[in-house]
Amino acid sequence: MSSGATEATMSARAPAHRVSLGAGARWLGRSKAATFGGVVLGTIVVVAVLAPYLTPHPYDAQDFTRALQPPLTLASHPLGTDQFGRDIASRILHGARVTLAVSVIGMVVASVVGVAAGLASAYIGGAVDAVIMRIADVQLSFPYLILAIAMMALLGPSLPLLVVVLAVRGWVSYARTIRGVVLSLQQQEFIAAAIASGARPRRIVSRHVLPNVLAPIIVLSSFELAAMMLIEASLSFLGLGVQPPMPSWGSMISQGREYIYAAWWLTTIPGVVLMLAVLGANQVGDGLRDLLDPRLRGARL
Amino acid sequence: MARFLIGRVLQSVPALVGVTLVVFLLLHASGDPADLMLPPEATDVDRQAFRHAHGLDRSLHVQYALFVWHTMRGDLGQSFTYGDPALDVLLRRLPATVELALTSTALALLVGVPCGVVAAFRRNSIADYLVMLGASLGQSVAGFWLGLVLIMLLSVQLGLFPASGRGTLAQLVLPAVTLSTWLMALLARLTRSSMLEVLRSDYITTAYAKGLATRTVVLRHALKNALIPIVTVLGVSLSYQMGGAVVVETVFNWPGLGTLTFDSVLRRDYPVVLVTVLFVGLVFVVVNLLIDILYGLVDPRIRVESRP
After folding, report:
1. How far is CA B95 from CA B92, B253, B262, in A?
2. Which of A125, A243, B7, B176 could covalently link to B103 via disulfide, CB atoms 3.0 to 4.6 Å apart?
3. How far apart are CA B134 and CA B184, in angstroms?
4. A138, A230, A301: residue with CB nearest B233
5. Sequence-distant (≥ 6) Cβ neighbours of residue B43 within 8 angstroms
6. ipTM
7. In which band, very low, low, confident or very high, does the pLDDT at B183 lie, cut at 50, 70 and 90?
8. Rounded CA separation A268/B177 (Å)
């Protein structure tokens, strides 16, 4: 009992950044860029979830009598149609579903694997640490996109593989960040106090370590989400990501490329939406970083 | 210093072995090049002959061991598609990529760093907001899309620059601008935050107190110290640039390493894929080594620490 009390007082002094939801929202509200990012990203998420109810047409419905209609000419196709007469607006909304699903799952897988690897690296140390960090080094010493292209092209594009490829990119940043934070935490007095008061390793991790690594994980996740949306689009643009007839912003841009002289909207519209989504996630990341950990300000690469 | 350098080079060997091994395994997991390289009417005897000629009928570890052995002796195999030595195929494409990479990096430095300095020095001014807005957009835009938009506006509409190919200076403009955007945005952001940190420090106050001109303080005292993180980032950014080059080169039909890598992966041209991967890995190692040396020149503290 007394050891629990000691631990509680020590953890009150811990530098964990506990921010209440209301205060956090107010703070983010003051930052115009973060508000903008949150609104844009939130809108895209809501629209993606509701896509089947919002879209006037199925994403693969072809109508050659109405092919290549510019935006704002037909009431039934507000954003125009592509070379097969498919509704651009419907394809953008369904593309948002695919992009978000793949990027979010990729990010979650990357964070779980990365956090586990980082914790293992920092706690077990020795050979485990050396092996994990060496693998991370090997991966960082090579252009990721070339590796992603090789994986997708050689193993055959599919959605599960796409998630794996995205997770391969992300785990390194999580692992290195977590390892760094945990190693510096181990020097902190409140951890020593918790150990001295008889807390089990499990309790130390869940009560003292995780709350402190949560801030960097959340911040990192917004930036990773942005990066993964860009990579998914790049791979789909090269024909190695999401496969037709399923729409993706990247493959829509690629299809529009053949009509670049005649139909500007085929490439322009999905590109603008992609940029807004990535910008939104990056701005939210910037805002959250300043909110949760002012020491990290300007740390984004 | 020599010992430090040799140590750094040796440290990179596992990385190169790891990367080539992964690519090697991926290549072999992906199907038989005989199916892709030979015409559909080829007989089984033809296939066997092709596989034997390229050593593909041996077991995997023998093939990889042979690859390492031949590589160390400078023999990197023959391209399946071109029939030439794989290294020659790579060297033919190299100048185009070097040209594009150097131009875009120079462009990014020349625009990004001054923008960051101005944004930091005139903090919260309109210039600062514009730079930060531009940098946020630059980091969020997909390179391939930006390339297509530039083609639509400057090439198709205004006819200012050619949309593809290589040879003239005009043809270099659009790919270089496209490829430089991401790094330019990163450098502007980084220079700004780095400068803001430096401008707060005591020796800047001292420099002002001595009555030095603002210009001297900013350029001689502040920027020189703010450059340290920028030098580090240049090394890291190289791998992004090389990855981005694949996409940007594809958009502009630029005959460089990016398009070569992409085409060779699709064609299962094993020797060319392996030689490009090895080459890109090596370049990365060498550049980061140079960055470390440069780092020592910029920051004397590091030079002292690395001395045995």
Report:
1. 7, 15, 17
2. B176
3. 10
4. A301
5. none
6. 0.84
7. very high
8. 18
Amino acid at A250: G
Q: Which two tokens stand for residue B2?
A: 């020599």
Of B143, B190, B239, the CB nearest to A142: B239
* B101-145 per-position pLDDT tens digit: 889 999 999 999 999 999 998 888 899 999 999 999 999 999 999
Instruction: Note the pLDDT tens digit of each residue in A140-153.
Output: 777 888 889 888 98
**Mean pLDDT confidence for B14-40:** 73
Contact B136, A33 (CB under 8 A): yes
Q: What is the largest CA-CA distance in chain B?
A: 86
Give residue A18's pLDDT: 52
Q: Which residues of chain B neighbour A233 with C-beta distances below 8 Å?
A: 142, 145
- Which of B22, B29, B140 comes nearest A282 by C-beta? B140
Shortest CA gap B242–chain A (Å): 6
d(CA A171, CA A179): 12
Q: If you average pLDDT over residues A125-141, what whole number do you get?
A: 85
CB contact under 8 A, B239 and A135: no
Is pTM beyond 0.90? Reply is no
By three-state DSSP, how is residue B82 classified?
coil
Distance from CA of A241 to the nearest CA of B (A): 13
Minimal CA separation from B211 to chain A, in Å: 31
CA distance B33 to B296: 47
A161-175, B47-61, B243-257 — which one is most confidently predicted on average? Answer: A161-175
Please answer yes or no on whether A141 and B281 come within 8 Å at the CB atom.
Answer: yes
Encode pLDDT of B125-137 as tens digits.
899 999 999 999 9
Measured distance CA(B304)–CA(B308) in Å, rounded: 9
**Is the CB of residue A241 less than 8 Å from the CB of residue A251?**
yes
Alpha-carbon span A131 to B123, nearest angstrom: 44
**Cβ A146–B233 below 8 Å, yes or no?**
no
Residue type (1 letter), B213:
A
- Nearest CB to A238; choose among B140, B196, B250: B250
For residue A58, the number of C-alpha atoms closer than 13 Å in the C-beta half-sphere is 6
Q: Is B78 helix (H, G, I), strand (E, B) or coil?
A: strand
